[in-house]
Design goal:
146 residues, mainly alpha, 9 helices, 73% helix, elongated
Length: 146
């Protein structure tokens, strides 16, 4: 447990942000890892805290690639989830594409946050420029969903 925690605290020397969130932290937090290592509740919480911290750091550094993983890893901690959501809102205007924002909006709706989904979908549409005759554009289904 100490070794995993140490790796998560020093992730930036070993992994890119997307590797750290989508592969490493997700694997560490999986049920199979917890069962395999016979972790008690305290150990699980310590690793979960480190994984959430890692996810938020990665989302700050690379929001385009780490935002959804950060939200997923932070689901069970309200404050961390709110922080990840705020990071996404801050990055939405500058560094995220409409497709990324629509994907996160659908995730928010699936998790039971319709108003947040709406806000993200609205932000996504500000990045999108469609003419009246572009009914085959890849984003049409997302726009109709929103």
């Amino acid at each position: 447990v100490f070794a995993l925690d140490s790796i998560m605290q020093n992730w930036f020397t070993l992994f890119t942000p997307i590797e750290a969130t989508s592969i490493f932290a997700t694997t560490v937090m999986s049920n199979s890892t917890i069962v395999h290592l016979h972790l008690d509740y305290h150990q699980q919480e310590k690793l979960a805290h480190s994984a959430r911290t890692l996810a938020l750091q990665c989302a700050m550094k690379d929001p385009q690639n780490c935002a959804l993983s950060a939200l997923t890893l932070c689901e069970k901690d309200h404050i961390a989830f709110e922080t990840a959501y705020q990071i996404i809102l801050d990055a939405a205007t500058t560094s995220m594409s409409y497709s990324q924002l629509f994907t996160i909006a659908r995730y928010m709706e699936h998790r039971g946050y319709p108003m947040r989904a709406y806000k993200l979908a609205t932000l996504a549409m500000t990045h999108l420029n469609l003419s009246y005759n572009q009914d085959t554009h890849p984003a049409i289904n997302d726009v109709l969903w929103a």
